Amino acid sequence: MSALKPAELLHEGKAKKVFRTNCPGVVAVQYKDDATAFNAQKKAQLAGKGLLNWEISARLFEALEADGIASHYLGCLAPGWMAVKEVAIVPVEVVLRNRAAGSLCRQLPITPGTVLEPALLDLYYKDDELGDPLLTEARLKLLGLLTPQDRSELERLARAVNAALQKRLEVIDIELVDFKLEFGRSSGGELLLADEISPDTCRLWNTSSAEADGEERILDKDRFRKDLGGVVEAYGEVLKRVQGMGPAPRQYQ
Ligand code: TMP
Ligand code: ASP
């Protein structure tokens, strides 16, 4: 553990807890084993998931940083724990889809697996009680959630993350089907990538899977959503490949 000490709990989400620390402007995030789907209608405890998502996220935040994309991530504290900059989370979830899957195929007549070129970018209002509704241009304006400048910055960053992650994951035989990002504003007013990047928040397909269309290629939370089993094993496979990208994530000093 570094000299940074977690203090009181500031916020508990579905997959992480956020703690104040002895360092102003820095908070400690602990990744939990809880798994939820369909707005927490489905819940389980998956032993080891927290540790897997912690290390996958830390490594992917570092990879993105090396690719010029800043985030709230500062470094690791102990297994399952990371130090991040304190940000005010923007209540907008940015979802990028390179292929059709999940809610897109439930809501629109699109065949699952259809390649979306350019990637489809949608914004959702982050509110569990409302079920994270899709935001239209007009609704975004109505709520006054983002200035036009913030919105284009957010979309620019999300597309940059997509390009960087696709490239990084392709090398380790993983296809980035879709993902959700969250952003926060730092005390200095900068929009920073926040939350996590893990098989909980990305759809990841194994491109070295023998069965090109089969469920065995699924390496993400769809294994839990669809009761396919082997959830932790799939996340473990993602971590093993992501570990191949470079050295262990840095300790926060
Ligand atoms: P969806 O197909 O259910 O809309 O999900 C799109 C992507 O966003 C998928 O990679 C899972 C991720 N996601 C989250 O991380 N959190 C959420 O609450 C939802 C609904 C999706
Ligand atoms: N994360 C959301 C939930 O907890 C939805 C999902 O990922 O399917 O319910």
Describe the structure.
Helices cover 28% and strands 32% of the residues. By secondary structure, the protein is α+β, with helices and mostly antiparallel strands. It has two domains: 6-85, Phosphorylase Kinase, domain 1, CATH 3.30.200.20; 88-231, ATP-grasp fold, B domain (D-amino Acid Aminotransferase, Chain A, domain 1). Strands 8, 9, 10, 11, 12 and 13 form a six-stranded antiparallel beta sheet that branches. A five-stranded antiparallel beta sheet has the order 1-2-3-7-6. It has a two-stranded antiparallel sheet with strand order 4-5. A hairpin with a 2-residue loop joins strand 6 (73-78) and strand 7. Helix 1 packs parallel to helix 6 (231-243). Residues 14, 36-40, 221, 225 line the site of aspartic acid.
Would you kindly provide a brief summary of this structure?
The chain is an alpha+beta fold and 253 residues long. The chain has helices at 49-66, 103-107, 137-143, 148-171, 222-225, 231-243, and strands at residues 6-12, 16-21, 26-31, 34-37, 42-45, 73-78, 81-85, 88-89, 92-99, 115-125, 174-185, 191-194, 202-206. The protein contains 6 helices and 13 strands.
CATH third-level topology of the largest domain:
D-amino Acid Aminotransferase, Chain A, domain 1
Number of domains: 2
- Share in β-strands: 25-35%
How many individual helices?
6
**CATH class categorisation of the largest domain:** Alpha Beta
Compute the gyration radius: what is it? 18 Å
Report the mean per-residue pLDDT as an integer: 96
The description of the largest β-sheet is: 6 strands, antiparallel
